[in-house]
Amino acid sequence: MEGSKKVLRFFLKANALLTRDDRRFLLLLLLFSIFISLVETAGVSAIMPFMAVAGDFSVIHKNEYFSYIYENLGFSSEVSFTVAFGMLLILFYLFRSAVNLLYFHLLARFSKGRYHLIAYRLFESYLAMPYRNFIERNSASLTKTIVTEAQNLTMLISAMLFTMSEIFIILLIYAMFIYVNWKITLLLTMVLALNALLLTNTVSKMIKRQGVKREEFQKKFYEVISSALGNFKMIKLRGNEDMVLKRFAQASSGFARANIVNETLLHFPRLFLEAIGFSLVSFIVIYLVYKYDSDISAAFGLLSMFVLGLYRLMPSVNRIMSSYNQILFYLKSLDIVHNELFYEAEELGDDAVSFEKRIYIERLAFSYVEGKEILKGIDLEIAKGSRVAFTGESGSGKSTLVDLIIGLYRPASGAIYIDDEILNERNLKSWRRKIGYIPQNIYLFDGTVARNVAIEEPIDEERLVKVLKQANIWDFLEKNHEGLDTVVGEGGVKLSGGQKQRIAIARALYTDPEVLILDEATSALDNETEARIMDEIYGMSEDKTLIIIAHRLSTLGGCDKIYNIKDGKIESVQ
Length: 574
Hints:
Elements: H1 2-16, H2 20-45, H3 47-55, H4 58-62, H5 64-72, H6 78-127, H7 131-134, H8 139-180, H9 182-201, H10 203-230, H11 232-238, H12 241-292, H13 300-329, H14 331-341, E1 358-369, E2 372-383, E3 387-391, H15 398-405, E4 413-418, E5 421-422, H16 428-432, E6 435-438, H17 449-454, H18 461-470, H19 474-480, H20 497-509, E7 515-519, H21 527-540, E8 545-549, E9 561-566, E10 569-572
Parallel strand pairs: 3-8, 3-9, 6-7, 7-8
Antiparallel strand pairs: 1-2, 1-4, 4-5, 9-10
Helix pairs in contact: 2-6, 2-8, 2-13, 3-6, 3-13, 6-8, 8-9, 8-10, 8-13, 8-14, 9-12, 10-12, 10-13, 12-13, 18-20
């Protein structure tokens, strides 16, 4: 009962990942697999009459079908009939190969083609994830799911399709076997069923365990790489490369061991079943010799059919076992991808919001953990065009309040109004487009200055030069580097802290925002550089609403209002 529930859950999850077009294509594949099964069965059964005719020409005249064809198609001799029969058989086997090749192509097209769709849907799901959920996730784990688990899932789908197609072939070949000789077929069924039961209860369970270990070690593998490359400078300074390598070795070797065991065990069913298959052929010969109490020339056609049938049947049985084991090994990927694709996503509308007068916050409260409010009953008004700063100790809720204002978090209670319109899911997208954000920790990817400033926006060189001049870095880039084509390196390693800060300012200004946010953007700089950049920001934000988060009051001289946040409450300092 429990086993049937697991199978049902497996198919429900797999079905949930497929689109309507996928299901139609899959139905066509199933119908095609039935046709392939008929072709395969015909290929096996056709050899017996051909061998019978080639071994004894009198069969042509004794068999009513052969006799009818011989007489009505005008064959001149038994030799010409046999040659024609053989040539027809050759053409049929060529056709069989071509049809099988087409089928395998369609299988690959379906299974491997799903990788793009699954990876795209995963990436789409992550981009639609609420910011609050995103910060609780590990980026290495998200990357692993898109790159590896999606690929593993396509292998699982491929294995599932192979299993279904081979089952049809086995059923039809067995039906033919039963028709020819049910006693031998019953013996074959018993032997193969016992061996399949033995393999699923030993080898398959071992492979499933290795599949769980594979996912665990691969997750650690990605996490170690992401952590080490993200903290490369600190690792070099502390000289603890050996500790990092030790953690990497544990994850890498564990992942390798799981794959080694899986790869080894995947070959076991084939080798075991081949031994059983050859033994069965020998047993059939022994049975026929014993039954006829002479040589087996009289049963040569029957023996040829069973030998060819087994020759075709054993690979099918092996493929089913291998596919079943592969499904078990990659089963965790189905669970992971299924859960990730049905993750809660933001559903934002396209309503426009107008910002002409003020941002008004009414009785706003927020908590990361239920029952532990970090902000309590905040009332605040920020006039358009004003310069407002928030100060307070680390963890007091400064950044959280700003994240609520710009719509990355949603209030637990209370409301935020833009002019007189409440900020909600219908207009949040429009509001976010009005925000320019300069973070404390700036991430620059390994690309040109132009691409780092535009970030997926259309590149307008005139506008790029303008904002880089506003950020006071254009002269430096043009004089010492390659202007807009300057490559910054991963994380901006080719630039100083102040230069990265100026790139971040240009990035924030590129979309011409109405609200400019500085989230402790200059706290990592020396006092002189910080003061200079803040003066520049005050100068370039005259037509914008400026909201600053800062520790030091010394940089806030240009602000109209300064608020301190303490114990979840807000109080005016200036």
